[in-house]
Amino acid sequence: MHRYTYLFAGSLVVAAAPALAGEEILYQSAPEWVDQAELPPSESEPGKPVRLMESQVRLDGGTVWQFHDMAVALDTPIALSQFGTITANWLPDKGDLIVHRVQIVRDGELHDVLADGVRFEVLRRERQLEQRILDGGLTATLAVPGLRVGDTLRVAYSVTKRDQALGNEMEWRAFVFADPMPIASGRIIASWPSAAPVNHKALRIGSELAVTEAGGMKTLTVEMPIAEPKEIPFDAPTRFRLPPGIQVGTFDSWEAVSATMAPHYDPQGTILPDGPIAREIDKIRSATTDPLARAALAVQLVQDEVGYLMNGLDGGNYLPQSPALTWEKRFGDCKAKSLLLLSILRELDISSEVVLVVTEGGDALPDLLPLPGNFNHMIVRADIGGVSYWLDGTSAGTRLETIGAVPRFGYALPLRAGGASLQEIAMRPQTVPDRIVRMTVDQRAGIRVPALFDFELTVTGPFAAAVRMLTQMEDGEQRDDAIYSTVAGIIGPHQQVEKTVAYDDETGTATITVDGLMTTPWTDEDGRYRLDVPYQPAAEFNFEINRARAEWRDLPVIVNGPLFWRSEVAWLLPGEGEGFAIRGQPSFENTIGGNVIRSTGGIEGERFELTQDLQSLVWEIPADQLAAVKRDTMRMRRQLPKLIAPTDVRHEWEYRGDDKRMLDAIDAAYSALVEQEEDDQVEAYVNRAAFYAGTSDWAGALADLDVVIERQPSNEHHLARAQARWHLGDLEGALADVQEAERLSPSEADHQVQIELLGQMGRGDEALALAEESALVAADPDSADIQLAYAEGWAGRREEGLARLTELAETAPAGSEAHNALCWYSGIWNLATPETLPACLKAIEQASGSAAALDSRALVLFRLGRAEEALVDLNKVLAVAPGQHESRYLRGIVRLSLDDKAGQEDIATALAAEPALKGIYGAYGMTPPTR
Hints:
Elements: E1 26-27, E2 50-60, E3 63-73, H1 77-83, E4 85-90, E5 97-106, E6 109-112, E7 121-123, E8 133-134, E9 138-143, E10 152-161, E11 171-175, E12 186-193, E13 199-203, E14 211-214, E15 217-224, E16 245-249, H2 254-261, H3 276-287, H4 291-305, E17 307-308, E18 310-311, H5 323-329, E19 331-332, H6 334-347, E20 351-357, E21 377-384, E22 387-391, E23 411-414, E24 423-424, E25 435-442, E26 451-460, H7 461-471, H8 476-491, E27 495-504, E28 509-518, E29 523-525, E30 528-532, H9 537-540, E31 557-558, E32 564-572, E33 581-583, E34 588-592, E35 595-604, E36 607-616, E37 620-621, H10 626-638, E38 642-644, H11 664-676, H12 683-694, H13 698-711, H14 715-727, H15 731-744, H16 751-760, H17 764-776, H18 781-794, H19 798-811, H20 818-828, H21 837-846, H22 851-863, H23 867-880, H24 885-897, H25 902-913, H26 916-923
Helix pairs in contact: 3-4, 4-6, 5-6, 11-12, 12-13, 13-14, 14-15, 15-16, 16-17, 16-18, 17-18, 18-19, 19-20, 20-21, 20-22, 21-22, 22-23, 23-24, 24-25
C-alpha cells in the first residue's frame, strides 16, 4: 500500500493572501473563477484511491490565491486512519485559510460535514521549532466525524498569500504528479489577467504548456497524472533530474529578482557608531590589517556569537531582521546573519554583497524561471585581492586557513539595486585538508594476533563544529558512542582503551584521539599473508558509473566534493620488518575523475609508512571522459600497495615460554578494558577470553569466562567455557557446560561434543543412548547415522559402527560426509584395511582435497603401516591449514615413528595449543613413540 498522507498537507500550498489577512479560518464558497470538477464515478479508474486532485491558482494584483480540491476513497482501515484527519497550514501574516467544502460520499449520497456545524481547530504552535524555524505558521486540523471504511472524503480549501517583500510581484511553483501516482482525475490550473506580465515554465512534464485566453484572463492547464518521466541516474547533476513541475511568476529576469530583493538588504546605516557591533569591529581592526584575516574574524564572530533561528514572523520569510536586533537577541537566520556580516565587512572596507543560493541542486538554477522561491539560503560574497570568497554566517568553524573553501551551491544571485544576473560559483580546490587521519598500527608482536593502534582524526569547518559539541556533552556514554561511531566509520570495528576529544578555537579544528585494539587485518591467500593497506583514501575512490542506456550516454557525472582528505598511516612490523615486501605502487600521483590522488610510502626497517591525499578539483565530469576515468580508476586500484609477509609468520599458538612476553602490551590493553567494565557488562571479559584462548592461555580464558557466565550466562558462553575446561583436563566441567548450553538453547544442542566427552570419560553407554535419542529427532538421517556410529565406537561396539558407516557410504549421494566419516572412524579405532582407502580417496575427491579428508586418509595410512605416505598427506594439510592442531599432533606421532625428532616439536606445539589432544588420541590408543 502506498502512503499519500501529504495530499491534505498545507505544506503543498505555495499560496497567497487577500488584502485582509488573519488568524481566523474563513468558511466561504469557492471563488467564481474556480473551474469546479466533478467527482469521477466510483467504478472508473479502479485501483486509484485518490479520486480527485485539483490545484487551481489565480495570480492577480500581487496576491496569489491557491485553491485545492481533493477526494480520497477510504477503502481500507489503513486509509481511514491516514486520511481521516485533515490538516492545512497557512501564514496569517501573509494571507488566509478559507475552507470551502468537507463532504462525505457514501453509497452515492453526499453528506455536508460543515453544514452540521463542524469546524476546524487551530493549533497555535510552531511546526518546525525543533529545526530552529519560527515562521508564525498556523495549522488547522479536523478529525472528520462519522467516517467509515468505504466512504470517499472530499475537501476543498484555499490559501492566499501576499508577500510583503515582493510588493506587487508574484510567484508560484508546483510539483506535477506523475504515474504511478494513483490519481483517478487531476489538474493543475493557473490563471492571471491577460495584461499582467506573467511568465511560466514547465519542468519535465513531457510537453509544452498550452495557454488559452478568454474573458481577459490567460489560463494554463495540466492534466494529472502525467506520464512517468524517464529515469535519470542519481549521479547525474540536478539539472537533469528535476522533478516534474510548473513555475509561474511576474519576474522577467534574474536581474528583476535581484533588484526587487536588494532594498531589504542595504547595510547602510545599520551599524551605530560606538554601539556594541561597532566595538566588535574595532577589535577586528586592532587585531590585524590583513583584509582576508579581518574577513575571517568577521565570519567567526557571526558564526560563534549568533545562534541560528529562522524568524519568519511579520514577513520575515524574505525580510531580514536588523543587525542591531540580531546582535541584541544573539540569534538569526541566514538572512539576518548575512546582513549582519555584510554590515561588518562594509565597515571594514571589504568589498562584499549578499547573494541568494540554493543549498542543493544549484546547477539547475539557469534552467528555472527567475523566482525568489527558487533559493533557500543566503550567504555573503567578499572580493579580496581579486579572489571571491563565499562566506556563510550560518556555517561553523571558518578560520583564515579555511576561508577559501567554496560551497557546492552552483550559482549565486547577488542582490543589487540595479539588478544582477546569476553568477557561477566556480570550483576552487581546497588548500587545507578538511579531514586528516593519522594512525599507527603496532604489530611488532606478530601479524596473527590483535593489533594495537593509535588513532587521530583532525577535522576543520562544520564537521569540526559538530565534533566540538562532543566536548560539551555531559552524558559520557552518549559522547563515547558518538566517538566510537565516528572512528568506526573510518577504521571499522575496534575496541577503545583511551579516547579524547578536543577543540582548538583559534584554528577551528577538532581532534579525536583513540588508543585501542583491533582484529588483525592480514588475510591468508594461498599460504601467504597479505595486507591490503587500509585507510587509504585512494581505496575509497571508485567510479562505477552506469551509462549503458542510450539516453544516458551524454549525461555528466557528479564529483563528490568539495573535499580534501589526507591519511598518514604507519605500520610497525614484527622481526624488524625482515622479509616483508610491498606489492603495488606506494608512491604515485594521478588525476582521475576530477580528483587528484597523491601517495608516498615505503618500508624502512620495522616501519611501513603510507601518506595519501584525495582532493577534488571539479564539480562534474563530462560524459566523453567517463570511459577513460573508469579505465584509469581500475588501473590505479590494481596498483594500490599491499604488504606481503614472509613465509615464516608466527602464528597465535606459537607464543610459548619467554615468547609469551611479546604479548604483554596486548594483554595490558585487554586488562585496561576489563578494568573499565561496569559490573553488569561482559564484553571486555569475552574479548580477553577469546584472546587468551587464541593464544592457548586456557587458564586465563577460563577465569574470564567464569566472570562472564556469572553475569550473563548464554549458550555461546557456556560452550566457550566447555572448550577451556576440556583443554585443562576438566572433562566433567566441560560436559556440564555443554549440557547447560543445550538447556539454554535447545535448538542449538551439540550432541557430538557431548558424545566425545562421555566417550573419553568411559561413559560410552550414555554416549550411545544420547545418540539414539538425538537420531529420533534428527533432520538429516545421514548425519544421525554418523553420530550413532561414533557413539557405538565409544560404547565398545566398534564393528557395529563400522558396518553402519560402510552401508551408509555405499548409498551416499555426492557431497555426503559418509565417506570421510568411514575413513576417519576406521582410523581412530584401528579398523582400517586396504579396502578402506577407496572410501578415503572418494572423500578427498568429493571435498576437492579438503584438509579434513586428507587428515583422515593420513590416519588410515599410518594405521596400515604406511607412515611415509601418511606424512605426505599431513604435510599437505598443514601447508593449507596450519591451525589444524590434531593434524600436527598426528604428524608428530608419524615423524617419531620414522625416527624424525622433529616430531617432538610438532607434539609440543600441538599440545601447547590444544592440550586436550593428548587425551583424545590416547583414547584412540595412539601415543607418541618413546624410543
